């Protein structure tokens, strides 16, 4: 496999020699770690589904959120609605400033 140094040999080395040995070991370790990482990445790619490999660079899609139905409408223009989330629409804010209540604009559920 390779030659092993005896502990006595290391104990007799100068600081410069020890430092050079450390540099060599560091370089060898880095090369082996990178080679092992490459092998593992190839194995991981082989285990992935083909469809995952194609879309690997894509950002993950947002999870689907349920549809939020409108709860309030503008009586002057019934196509303008608001679900009660986020900032109030201008038409509602102006009506509230005029003294009306939010419940005046609530959409009534259909009678069953």
What's the total number of strands? Answer: 2
Percentage of β-strand residues: 5-15%
Instruction: Encode the helix/strand succession as letters.
Output: HHHEEH
Q: How are the strands of the largest sheet arranged?
A: 1-2
Q: Portion of residues in helices?
A: 40-55%
Average pLDDT, all residues = 85
Total of helices: 4
Assign the structural class, choosing from mainly alpha, mainly beta, alpha/beta, alpha+beta, or little secondary structure.
mainly alpha
Low-confidence stretches: none
- For the CA atoms, what is the radius of gyration? 35 Å
Specify the biggest β-sheet: 2 strands, antiparallel
Structure notes:
The chain is mostly helical. The chain has 2 domains: 7-52; 72-105. It is 46% helix and 8% strand. The chain contains 4 helices and 2 strands. It has helices spanning 7-11, 15-47, 50-54, 90-97; strands spanning 72-74, 77-82. It has a two-stranded antiparallel sheet with strand order 1-2. The longest helix has 33 residues, at 15-47. It starts with 6 loop residues before the first helix and ends in a 15-residue tail after the last helix. The model has no long low-confidence stretch (mean pLDDT 85).
């Amino acid at each position: 496999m390779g030659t092993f140094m005896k502990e006595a040999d290391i104990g007799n080395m100068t600081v410069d020699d020890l430092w050079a040995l450390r540099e060599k070991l560091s370089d060898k370790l880095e090369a082996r770690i990178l080679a092992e990482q490459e092998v593992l990445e190839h194995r991981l790619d082989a285990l992935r589904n083909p469809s995952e490999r194609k879309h690997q660079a894509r950002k993950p899609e947002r999870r689907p959120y349920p549809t939020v139905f409108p709860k309030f409408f503008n009586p002057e223009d019934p196509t303008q609605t608001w679900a009660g989330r986020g900032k109030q629409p201008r038409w509602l804010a102006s009506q509230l400033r005029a003294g009306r209540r939010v419940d005046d604009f609530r959409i009534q559920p259909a009678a069953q």
